[in-house]
Design brief:
The protein has a domain at 24-61 and 179-233: P-loop containing nucleotide triphosphate hydrolases (Rossmann fold, 3-Layer(aba) Sandwich). The chain contains seven helices and nine strands; from the N terminus they run E-E-E-E-H-E-H-H-H-E-H-E-H-E-E-H. It has helices at 47-55, 87-97, 102-116, 131-142, 161-176, 188-194, 212-231, and strands spanning 2-3, 12-15, 19-22, 36-40, 71-73, 149-153, 180-184, 197-202, 205-211. Bound molecules: adenosine-5'-triphosphate. Adenosine-5'-triphosphate (ATP) binds next to helix 1. Pfam families: ABC_tran.
Amino acid sequence: MATTKSTLLGGLISAEKEVTIQALRHISLELKDGDRLGLLGHNGAGKTTLLKTMAGILPPNAGSVTVEGRISPLTSIQLGLDNEATGMENIRIRGRLMGFRDDAINEITPDVAEFTELGDYLDLPIKTYSSGMRMRLSFAVSTAFQPEVILLDEWLGTGDLEFRDKAARRLRQIIQDSRIFVFATHSRDLHRRMSNKGAVMDKGQILFCGELEEAFEFQDKLVADKAAAAAAP
Ligand SMILES: Nc1ncnc2c1ncn2[C@@H]1O[C@H](COP(=O)(O)OP(=O)(O)OP(=O)(O)O)[C@@H](O)[C@H]1O
């Protein structure tokens, strides 16, 4: 099997008859109550793939993932929206997709409707919505339930300035009330505010998992070592 020369970015690429990318390898990770784990790593390191695997969106072809409690992947929050259905109908559609029964959805619907501030638009098909209006709807319904485990791939910046502030407050609140939070972002500032541990990923592996500032140091050294190796004759 031919394996391409190692590069700075991405997972492990190998080529036989077809190109395959092993997005995750040798992952062993256990999280407990109170953990707020920041995922660090360059583009293509495997952060999103790990979040999707933890969420059950991508089943691993080896090994297993065990989650105790309700998990909410706040990734692809617009997934499953039906353009022809009204805003109100889409609240139900998203709620069902998130695994909730109709009585639970009925209970949160007034709050979701109010949070969106979409008023009469909620009775119109969402194909008539602007992208910001769609975000308001999908954000409001996706954050209406308090999950025990929250997985977040980049901070959700939604809608106009006023809505963004309100959305950020709500997002911070459900994260604070969650038991476990896993967060992928390139922003160290956000990690310092939201995470209490850091995991450094590279080519699909977790190379370091521990205290957040130590994770930053590990990542800086990894980048410096790679740059030195690339510059070597
Ligand atoms: N749909 C896909 N099909 C094939 N390969 C993919 C797909 N999505 C991601 N990959 C590969 O999986 C590897 C890990 O990608 P992933 O999106 O998990 O990285 P990431 O750390 O989240 O990157 P970024 O910081 O750029 O978001 C990369 O090598 C990428 O090329």
